Task: structure prediction
Amino acid sequence: MNLKKEIENYVPFNEQEENDKKQFLKFINTFDDILTRKNTFGHFSSSAFVVNKERNKMLGVYHLIYNGWIYPGGHADGENDLLSVAIREIKEESGLTPKILDDSIFSIQSVAVKGHMKRGEYVLPHIHFDTIYLMEADDKIPLAYKKDESKGIKWISFENIADENICDFGRPIHEKLVKKLFSK
Result:
C-alpha cells in the first residue's frame, strides 16, 4: 500500500491524531519530496512503540536533541516502507530484533524538531511526520546503543512514562500509546 493511502485509511485514536492526519495529508499533497531530509520543511520518520511481553514496560532511547527519553525511531531517508524503517531503527538503536504485533500504523503525530547541529552542520527547525508501529521485544535481552545518537537505551515502566526524564513532547504521546494499547 502506498503511504498516502495508508494515511487516508488510518483511523485516528483521538483529537490530536485527527488533526495530525489532516496535516499529514496536506503535507503529502503539497510536497513531492516527503521522505528525505532534503525537504527542510519536514519529512517522514518512523518509530516503534516496543513493549515487553508482560505489557508493563516500553523501550526508551535517551535522545540527544530532545534531551530526554522517547520511543525509538528515525528518518525514512527515502524509504517508503515505514514499517521496515521502524524495524531497522530498533535494531540499530537497541540491538533487538522486535516481533511485529501489527503491520499497520499504530499511531501518528507531527513533532517539531528544533534547529540543531549534526555532524558539524546546522539543521533547520522542521517537522517530523512520525508513524509509530506496535512491536514487542524480550526485556531480558541485553541492550546496546549507538553513542553518537543517544545517551542510552532502557526499558521504562509504564508507571514512569511521563516522569521528568521523558522528553517534553513525549509525555502525552507515551500516555496515549499506553492507553491505545489497552483499548485494543
Q: What stands out?
A: The first strand starts at residue 42 and ends at 51. The chain has four helices and ten strands. The chain has one domain: 3-183.
